[in-house]
Predict the structure.
Amino acid sequence: MKRFIRHSGKDVPIITGAGGGKGGGAIAPNSLFSTDILYVTNALGEGPVYRINPNGPQDIEIQDGAIDDLINLDSNGLENTDKFLTVTTTGTVTQDPLPKFGDEIVTPQVFASQVTLKKGNLSGIPSSSITLQETSANDWDALRFTFIIEELFTSDTSGNVNARAVTYRIRIYDSLGITLITTVEKTISEKTDTAYKFSETITIPIASRSANGYRFSIDKTSDDTDNPRLRDTIKVVGWDELKYSPQAYPRTALIGYALKAMNEHTGGVPNFTSMVKGLLVKVPSNYNQPILANGDIDWRELEVAKPLLNLFTFSDSIDNAVWTKQSATVTANSAVAPSSATTA
């Protein structure tokens, strides 16, 4: 039966909804977050140099522009270490590796296309995994695998959205793919509706390391589902081959930049510029910079004017017997010397 209401002198029908839902469900907040951080190491030149960025981070440019958005301009003027960080070495013969930057040698490997993992427990949906993938031939200390979870949640008919679990497994074999070296199986039980990037590092036992390299397999061990309310898409992006070999690069001045991906600082590796203070000199190949007892460069050679040293013996005592006189008579201390003393 239709109901009407009087409006502007006319009867107008009242329109109501069908009364379907009973209100929105509760959506749990995301509990998985990831941020890419760029690590770049630049060799500034043969060291030692005197100072790098002597005025602080104001001496640094990215893409030929100032980095005001990465500096605490309203306080101490230093780097905002939540977004940006630099470390340096000046190129001494005794310098340590750059912390965080010089601890390992990384050889990155990326699949031509990301591999979506499927267990294959559903009819009509084949399994999808990585099987006995070869690494490069080297006795790597560790392998680091990169994953992306595009979605991970469960929802019900009332609109409630909550966490869901997904389990993956990594198996590492010898170079022939016969002997199993180690297995790692992990379950992630969280909630996210945005892409979450993470990595899994597996150290190769010392006894199993081989210059021939390794093979590895990655698969999903939790069940697939065809329920549209359940999401657990996980993909493999690639892997890094790691050698734990700290690199100090003596006689090379280095700077390491760490930059958080945000705002305009995304989408590629930018150009970094720093100010270097020192001397440009041409020196022989056997030249050695003066070194202090603790191994540091003796920069006093540049900053402190050294008094002149007279290498002539008895230069103000010509009457001394070490001088040979011919057809001359010497009278000591009879004239004013450049020092204003009567010693000439």
In short: Residues 300-303 form the longest helix (4 residues). The chain has a mean pLDDT of 84. The chain has three domains: 27-103+246-306, 106-244, 311-344.
